[in-house]
Design brief:
Blueprint lengths: L1 H5 L7 H9 L3 H8 L16
Organism: Kingella negevensis
Protein name: Peptidase M16 inactive domain protein
Length: 49
């Protein structure tokens, strides 16, 4: 409950989130994996002030 609310969601969104994750297919993952290439890779370094 606290984790969801800390990222701007409501505690009762948990069931909807789980349902959407259950609907992800192997084909969805394979399509997304095609976008993960070294050419699209980005590194960000955050330094303290």
């Amino acid at each position: 409950m606290g984790t969801l609310e800390s990222v701007g969601l409501k505690y009762d969104d948990e069931n909807a989130i789980r349902q959407r994750l259950d609907e992800v297919t192997t084909a969805d993952i394979q399509a997304a994996a095609k976008l993960l290439t070294q050419e699209r890779e980005v590194y960000v370094e955050l330094l303290p002030k």
